[in-house]
Amino acid sequence: MNTPNKLTLLRVLLIPLFLGVLYLGFPGSNYAALAIFVLASLTDLLDGHIARSRNLVTDFGKFMDPLADKVLVVTAMLWFVECGQMPAWAVAVVIFREFAVSGMRLIAVEGGRVIAAGWSGKVKTASTMVCLILMFLPIPGWMSAACVWVIVLTTVYSGVEYFVKNRDVMDWTEI
What we know:
The protein is an all-alpha fold. It contains 6 helices and no strands.
């Protein structure tokens, strides 16, 4: 297994550890979970960089890397829903966008087309990670609410942009 795939696998294994630490609730568990979340997020940056720079792109990486990212982010968001720090509708927006984009990518692949991640998707991912990290810190409620809105707005924008730029993938006359 190459280094990027090992990093992706590490990220997958860190997700239950991250959640477990949160549920243990020992003194400082929030910070320990934050450290695990940051480490998992950094493996995403690192494995992508290594894979692209060394041409180590694999089917495992193409499948597991985005899945690991989505599960990590949704896990953190669900924790914040449980803690009352994020409304469930915000998580629903994120999940809907991810399913819709993944579905369109599947349709594109059937037509022999691969749709790469766009710039707004990368901004969405980065801003979501930063906002989630901030939400683990003792920030005022208004800042936590602002983070939720940044996550929702960048998610919606990147999803709309994705569908507009790739509208030719779908046969919209079937509606």
